[in-house]
Amino acid sequence: MSGTPLYEELLSELKTCAEPDYAAFHKRLLKNDKLNVLGVRVPTLRKMAKKYSPRIDELLALPDDYYEVTFIKLQAAALLPWEEFIKYVVKCVSLIDNWATCDCFSAKCIAKHKEEFLPFVYEFMRGGEFAQRYALTVLLSFYMEERYLGLIFTSVLDTDTPLYYVHMAAAWLIAEVLVKFYDKGVEFLNDGVMDKKTHNKAIQKACESYRLTKEQKDFLRGLKR
Asked: Do 74 and 96 contact (CB within 8 A), yes or no?
């Protein structure tokens, strides 16, 4: 709530660390003119999130007038232990309205609870653009194993890749599959089931990786549509 001691304390701390030039630069990267950006760098935001994480209920009740406030909310939630994190994850994902907040919202506790978190992944894949992106980035961060390749491929096909930020996350995800499970990734590309734009972007991103050989990259370029 605006005007509360916590909100005033948080805003005061943020404004002390704000850099106007960085704010202008970062806002251009975010590509969302509706965001109010103060210009506080990520390491500082993460330190503040750690500080305020024990007050997560109060924190989540604050208004999202500034990009940095929302970022801190999500970072604070991501620091919670599993049993607490899952109480807040749906609320947190509903707050995401840009790629940076989405991609930085990575809760390490998911790593030890992959199967238990899958219902949330499925739920977010039915959501809006940034909920879907979050689902795909979670798969990228925590499910990049051979046993989950079927889930990864199905998820890419089930999300709305015509949406720009979903498209980019899907391409990123398949590019990582190509890097880590090259043959399986090539087989998926050869099926021709992805939309052309995402298919080609995945190949492009894979070819930008230093982890593939020149021969592998040349072969992938030959699969462009």
From this structure: yes
pLDDT, residue 32, reads 83
Phi, psi angles (nearest 5°) of residue 80: -70, 155
Mean local confidence (pLDDT), 73-91: 97
Using pLDDT thresholds of 50, 70 and 90, give the confidence band for residue 4.
Answer: confident
| Per-residue CA distances from 52 to 58, 64, 66, 78 (Å) | 9, 16, 16, 12
Residue 131 to residue 93: CA distance in whole angstroms = 6
- Cβ atoms of 81 and 110 closer than 8 Å: no
Question: Nearest Cα to 199, choosing from 180, 216, 175?
Answer: 175
Judge residue 217's burial from the number of C-beta atoms within 10 Å of its C-beta, 0-12 exposed, 13-18 middle, 19 or more buried: middle
Cβ–Cβ under 8 Å, residues 195 and 166: no
Q: Report the distance separating Cα 35 and Cα 43, nearest Å.
A: 20
Tell me how far apart the alpha carbons of residues 84 and 194 are, in angstroms, rounded to a whole number: 37
Residue 76 · residue 52 · CB < 8 Å: yes
Counting DSSP H helices and E strands in the chain, the numbers are 14, 0
Cβ atoms 198, 156 nearer than 8 A:
yes
- Quote the DSSP letter at residue 3: T
